[in-house]
Amino acid sequence: MVNMAAAVRCLGRVVIQHQRHSLSKITPFYPCSVCVQVPSRHFAAATKPAKRTKRDAKEKVSDEKKDDIEKIKSYPVMEGEPEDDVYLKRLYPRQIYEVEKAIHLLKKFQVLDFTNPKQGVYLDLTLDMVLGKKKKVEPFASVLSFPYPFASEINKVAVFTGNASEIKIAEENGAAFAGGTNLVQKILDDEIQPDFYVAVPEIMPELNPLKKKLKKRFPKLTRSKEEFFLETKIATLDMSSDQIAANLQAVISEVCRHRPLNLGKWFAG
């Protein structure tokens, strides 16, 4: 009984002096024969959701875009012309217009888009250069005078050739400068400043000093990377529709002159 009373007194002192919850066992400060287990409180914290990395977000967006693309591809092709101004081009057949209608639309869109009314009108042609089995039309170049010129100033053309008769022909046909290597130094010194440069193939190796100065204007043996593709400016948009159509017809007639009519269609697409 004595031991029990001492234990109770010990417990009372501990509780009075330390009125708090403990997370572990407490050993009494006074000697006694009994150790008491004080009730413990257990704590729990809510875990934060794992952060989404940028990589995961990009992958999710990429997958969504792929799904959208596949969904669009599954749409059936529509018939006829679109009724709205904004539409998906791939869902409608390619629109082909007559020359007059195409020029009218160009002028209409210029007003709607507030673009330059004097902007250039360009013609892109894809040519069928194949003649038959293992044969094709050789690349060609032509000089054409438009029925309705659109340049405000006459361009100065320099012709490089070492042949005296070719120099005379060039001058007779309006070349501002014609000659051989004697023109090279004059161009380097800016004594003459042509707008365009033309050269015969034989003199090309002697014109290498001009490559750095002329850059894109340096005479080339080929006009474009693709032998079957032709691009040229034919008018400005402020010209009348009849004038634009006449210049267009002049280019097409000149191109057709390089392929016999009995060999079929000349323009691809």
Automatic annotation (TrEMBL):
Compartments where found: Mitochondrion
Signal peptide: none
GO terms for cellular component: mitochondrial inner membrane; ribonucleoprotein complex; ribosome
Gene3D superfamilies for the chain: 3.40.50.790
Presence of keyword Signal: no
Keywords associated with the record: Mitochondrion, Ribonucleoprotein, Ribosomal protein, Transit peptide
Similarity section: Belongs to the universal ribosomal protein uL1 family.
Protein name, as recorded: Large ribosomal subunit protein uL1m
Lineage, uppermost ranks: Eukaryota, Metazoa, Chordata, Craniata, Vertebrata
Gene from which this protein is expressed: MRPL1
